[in-house]
Fold:
Amino acid sequence: MPDIQLSVGSTVALPKAALEKLLENLLHMGYRLLGPQVQEAAIVYQPLHSLSELPKGYSSQQDNATYRLVYTGHSRYFDATPGAQSWKQFFFPPLTQLESFSRQEDGHWQVEERTPDLTPLALFGVFPCDLAAIQVQDKIFIREEWKDPVYWSRRQSAFIVAVNCLHPCGTGFCASMGTGPRANPGFDLNLTELEDVFLVEIGSEAGRLLMDGVQILPTSAFWLQAAQKSLEEAASKMGRSLPHPEALPELLLNHLDARQWDDVARRCMSCSSCTQVCPTCFCWDGRDSIDLAGKTARRERVWDSCFNPDYTYVVGGNTRPTTRSRYRQWLTHKFGSWYAQFSTSGCVGCGRCITWCPAKIDVTAEIAAIREEVQA
Structure:
């Protein structure tokens, strides 16, 4: 084996069989390893123990309200793009118990402290759009003036193995949003899958240490050119596009009375599916409950949605009582006011909201219709 000196920023070749050693190293280092697997005809993220559990040989087909996994038996591990699940669930869980209480004999309530699980997470096979989504959520939950303790405890020690997207889904438009198909910085390791090898880009010192004992080869010009060609082809094969996303805040926020809002409101069911599959949406609600005997109680944080009519209900009424107002709020926030709030778009172009909308509403088509209407 050649003596190759690794450093942050360097790229080496990894024979596909050696990928198992990467998994072993993560497990030996004490990480809770999570990765994409096939379950009930979909890609889900769950504990990963060996290379054989990855979706090798699978491809995915996605369009409006359509998602299908197809097994073709090819030799690639990462052709199938993500399903409804995103990695958000591991940093910002759908349900988190914040506090629990028990009534003492004297009638006073005692708070029962919960010890957070500090086992570090390793996310294996994070596509570029989802890596960008994690970084968007970092801006939401980790700020100078405040850090969400649940998010912070899980995020700060996480190890991320990204994988460049060479076979984009039919609803994705990450190339338009600048979030793919090549992963932006923020990973510990980044893989590009070629026919016989992975090219591995080292993004952190933790990533460099993980490569200890792993069989690697020098990266030839042939492999580098093959990777670059594959990425260029992937960018040209995006299922959707969204021209000039930087102009969307002005377009959307200055045309809140466009007729297109009425058109989409007639189709939208306000079901919240788009927000539940979105990797950046962060609406949540606090929920208190008590047992029938009145002896124990708990407080939980649960995912919520701006499409939920109760989400904006306050004393005296609802500030967004119609589907039109709720859809308009979601779209203008995601592509417009999110920039002012968090200095980034709230969309990473993953296309999940298009794939999983039962009414077949396509955000790229809705934005194009608004642009066409106001320019007419």
The chain has a mean pLDDT of 94. The chain has two domains: 11-88+115-236, 245-283+304-375.
